[in-house]
Amino acid sequence: MSMYHQGQRDLQDAFGSRALADRLDETLRHERFTDRDAAFIAQQSFFFLATADDQGRPDCSFKGGPAGFARVIAPDALIFPDYDGNGMFRSLGNLTANPNVGLLFLSVGERPQRLRVNGTAEVLHDDPLLAEIPGAQLLVRVTPRDIFPNCPRYIPTLTVTAPSVHAPEAGKSPVEADWKAHPMFADVVPPRRV
Fold first, then answer.
1. Residues linked to residue 107 through DSSP beta bridges, in sequence order
2. pTM value > 0.85
3. What does the alpha-carbon distance between residue 73 and residue 78 come to, in Å, rounded to a whole number?
4. Which residues have C-beta within 8 Å of that of residue 173, sequence separation ≥ 6?
5. Average pLDDT of the chain?
6. SS3 assignment, position 137
7. Beta strands of 27-172 (E only): which ranges?
8. Phi, psi of 156, deg, nearest 5
9. Beta partners for 59?
10. Distance CA 51, CA 21 (A)
11. Hey, where are the domains in the chain?
């Protein structure tokens, strides 16, 4: 089954790239995580998450944590924790209304890479893996439909100098975001779930 719809086909035809698009689909796209995919994802400390609500209105979110916070647990399953945030639950709320999801993993060093994962997701409230992930309040499980590397040529060469001080670590108290103490929000910030 092709991963392209008619709008994409129309543009491929207009720019003469249908044969290239088909070759990329035939040779690079897969439906199950490979060991190489799993290793790449395990090295990343962030990714971008695209969701849409029940009306199809999109939302994109940055997700970050310690390297390996998102991980492949089976050829057909990737998990990542939801950490304490701003309480809007835009992404996870969307997933409860529309399970379709897109994840974009990037490495930004001297050899940039990117990997796309499109599929469906579910939000888990009481999965046993939650207890194994410091700082996790919910867990998201993604079942892939399309996994494919993407050309990294426009990714700038960046240097990550340190992980976020807010990334949860086992045995350490979480560092709260400064904005939560601001008088505009302090009276409505709920207590952190443990």
1. 113
2. yes
3. 6
4. none
5. 91
6. coil
7. 46-52, 58-64, 71-74, 77-82, 100-107, 113-124, 138-149
8. -70, 155
9. 51
10. 24
11. 31-181
Classify each residue of 114-144 as buried b or exposed e, where b means 16 or more C-beta atoms within 10 Å of its C-beta: bbbbbbebebeeebeebeebbbbbbbbbbbb
C-beta of residue 165 within 8 angstroms of C-beta of residue 175:
yes
- Pull the structure tokens for residue 184: 């505009």
- 56 vs 69: CA distance, rounded Å: 28
Long-range contacts: 165-173, Cβ < 8 Å, 24+?
Answer: 167/45, 167/64, 167/65, 167/66, 167/69, 168/65, 168/66, 168/83, 168/133, 168/134, 168/135, 168/136, 169/66, 169/134, 169/135, 170/134, 171/134
Pairing of strands 71-74, 138-149: unpaired
Q: Which amino acid is at 169?
A: E
| Span 76-85, pLDDT tens digits | 999 999 998 8
DSSP state, residue 79: E
Distance CA 152, CA 115 (A): 9
Q: Which CATH superfamily is domain 31-181 in?
A: Electron Transport, Fmn-binding Protein; Chain A (2.30.110.10)
Determine the distance from the C-alpha atom of residue 119 to the mean position of all C-alpha atoms in its chain, rounded to a whole number. Answer: 11
In this structure, which long-range contacts are made by residues 180-188, counting pairs with CB atoms below 8 Å and at least 24 apart in sequence? none
Residue 1 confidence (pLDDT): 67
- The pLDDT score that the predictor gives to residue 19 is 94
Give dist(CA 178, CA 7) in Å, integer. Answer: 44
